[in-house]
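haha ok so turns out i had the wrong file open the whole time. this is the CORRECT one, sorry everyone. sequence first:
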Amino acid sequence: MTSEDAIVVRALRTTQGDNLDVYALFIRGSDLVRIADISRLSREDSSPLKGFQRPEIKSHVKGITEYLNQGNVLFPNAIILALSPDLRFVAARGSKPTGDAGLSQAGTLTIPIREEGMRSAWIVDGQQRSLALAKAANSDLPVPVIGFVSDSLTTQREQFILVNKAKPLPTRLINELLPETGSILLPRELSARKAPAELCGLLSRDPNSPFHKLIKRSSEQNSKAVITDTAVITMIRNSISNPLGALAPYTSSTDGAANVESMYNLLTTFWRAVRDTFPEAWALESKSSRLMHSAGIIAMGVLMDRIYAKIGGQRETYEAVLQELARVAPYCAWTSGQWPMINVQWNEIQSTPQDIKALQETLIRLYMTSAHQ
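then structure:
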C-alpha cells in the first residue's frame, strides 16, 4: 500500500468494551473527509433505517471555517470515528518507559484511502467540524481523533446517541435511532423512550396501520405525512407510564421490558376506530384538523386509556371501541365549530400544556357524561 492510497500516523492503542480496539491519534484536518464517510440518516419506504447522522448545517460549517481561517487557532476538540477492521496497526518496538501503567501501546496506524461510500471510517461525532476542516485554508492543522474499531452500524448508532446525549441533538432524530440500537445499557431517560419510538416507527411503516405514511419522520420525506412523531410518541409514553393506562399492563414490572406486539395490536385497534369514527378529520394537515394536531393525538390517547379501563378483557375489540367513541363523536369539534364546556373554537386549540389538558379533560367529561345518559 503506497502513501497515495493510505494515511500513516502515530497512534496509541488500547481496548475497551468487548475487546474493541480504541485508538488516539492526530491527523491533518483536510484528511478526515478522505478517510471517513458521513453516514446520513435515511429510509426508503419499508426498507431498514440507514445511517444515523443529521443533515449538514451549512451555517454551522461556515462559522467553524471562518474561525479556522483566522490564523493560529487552537482546535483541541477530538473527532470521534468508527474504524473499519481492515486498517493495520504495527506496535512500536522497544522497552516501556519507567513508570508506564501499560494502559496503551504505541505504534503506527495505516488507514486506507478509498472513494466515497467505501471508506475505512465513519464520523460518529464531529461531522460539522470535519466538513469545515476540509474547507479551511490551513489544510495541515493537526486534529485530535479518537477511533474505535467497529463496522457494526448498531454500535455506531449507540455511540452516536451516547456522545450526543448531553448536546442539543434533535429529539426526533434520537427517537428514530433508539429502536435501531442493540443491547446497549441506555440511560434511564433514553431507555423509557425506546419502546414508544419503536411503536411509532411500526405505525408509520405498516401498510395495515391507520397511521401508515402519516407520521413525519427524520429519515423520510413523505408529502402525505401530517402528524409529528413526537406527538405519537408522547401519547404512547403517557399510556405506558400511567399505572391505569391502556398500555401499562404490557410492560414488565421487574425490568420494564415492553411487549411491543401486544401494545401495537391495541394501538392499531383503537386508532382504526378513531379514523373510522372521524373520517372527515383524518389524514388532514393539523391546520385543517385538530385530530391530526399534537393536542388532538395526545388528548385522544388519554381517552384511549379511559375507554380501555371500561371495556377491558374480552371486549377489547374494534367494534367495542367504535361503540365507545360514538358516545363523544357528536360533540367533537375537530374541523369546525366549538368545543363544549370550554367554549373554544376548533382552531384555537394549540400545542400548549394548558390547551392539551383542557382538551383531554373535555373529552373525558363528555365520555363520562354520555355513559350516564
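DSSP finds eleven helices and twelve strands in the chain.
again sry for the mixup
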